[in-house]
């Protein structure tokens, strides 16, 4: 019997953890860099066909203010310097362009309802929008899709987006404590305790929707059972797992 390779030392299995910054300025710079990078990546993955696509990150020093991509600016070449700082009422405090006020109002409502959410992403891909058009939740058809098992919700009626503050608040309440929300006839909104996690949940939801729609078009898919789906969610559905999963994708798209 051939010799077995020695086990890999436990310390070599560790991965880089999300950075922690003691100074607000450094944390702000980090969030802005990651937000701009996430927007560029999502655009390259085909999410930019929705003109209302928006991603926000809470300012670490002024939690009622958000950094956001400007209206009408292509995300493919977006930099941290292009981002706007906008207060809860939609007033631009820093930056030389306009904000998409209607879309921003929904993000502001979600951030108000979820003080734990550092970032909110609403950049709808074609499969997520197709799933939303069917008014369906993400089914536990794959291990990866189980990250959303009993951890996302559905607004099962067409809404006017963010035209009404009361409607924005209602949508934010529908999200509850979950990581994602399917907005019927719109697409998927995701949140995260880091920008990277929120961006990964958007990518993961799009991939899960693609598998789900493909499987149902081909036949009758067999969902993963309740206990196994919960176990997979506990392992792959945390924001730390999302952060780790996002890093290779982020690095592959780095300029």
From TrEMBL:
Positions of the Class II aldolase/adducin N-terminal domain: 33-213
SMART domains: Aldolase_II (SM01007)
Compositional bias per record (Basic and acidic residues), positions renumbered to this chain: 11-29
Database matches in PANTHER family: ADDUCIN, PROTEIN HU-LI TAI SHAO
Organism: Streptomyces globosus
Protein family according to the UniProt entry: Belongs to the aldolase class II family.
Alphabetized InterPro entries for the sequence: Aldolase-II_Adducin_sf, Aldolase_II/adducin_N, Aldolase_II/adducin_N_sf
Superkingdom: Bacteria
Cellular compartments per GO CC: cytoskeleton
Listed name of the protein: Class II aldolase/adducin family protein
Region (Disordered) residue spans: 1-29
One term of GO molecular function: actin filament binding
Pfam families: Aldolase_II
């Amino acid at each position: 019997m051939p010799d077995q390779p020695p086990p890999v030392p436990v310390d070599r299995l560790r991965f880089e953890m999300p950075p922690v910054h003691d100074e607000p300025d450094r944390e702000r710079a980090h969030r802005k860099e990651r937000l701009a990078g996430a927007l560029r990546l999502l655009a390259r993955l085909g999410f930019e066909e929705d003109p209302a696509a928006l991603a926000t990150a809470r300012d670490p020093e002024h939690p009622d203010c958000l950094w956001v991509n400007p209206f009408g600016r292509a995300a493919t070449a977006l930099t941290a310097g292009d981002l706007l700082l906008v207060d809860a009422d939609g007033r631009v405090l820093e930056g030389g362009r306009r904000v998409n006020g209607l879309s921003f109002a929904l993000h502001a409502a979600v951030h108000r309802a979820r003080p734990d959410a550092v970032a909110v992403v609403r950049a709808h891909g074609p499969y997520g929008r197709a799933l939303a058009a069917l008014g369906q939740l993400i089914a536990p058809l794959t291990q990866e899709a189980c990250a959303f098992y009993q951890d996302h919700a559905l607004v099962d009626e067409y809404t006017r987006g963010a035209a009404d503050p009361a409607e924005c608040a209602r949508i934010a309440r529908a999200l509850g404590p979950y990581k994602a929300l399917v907005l019927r006839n719109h697409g998927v909104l995701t949140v995260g305790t880091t920008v990277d996690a929120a961006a990964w949940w958007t990518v993961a939801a799009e991939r899960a929707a693609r598998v789900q729609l493909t499987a149902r078009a081909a036949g009758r898919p067999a969902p993963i059972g309740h206990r196994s789906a919960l176990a997979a969610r506990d392992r792959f559905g945390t924001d730390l797992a999302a952060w780790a999963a996002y890093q290779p994708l982020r690095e592959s798209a780095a300029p």
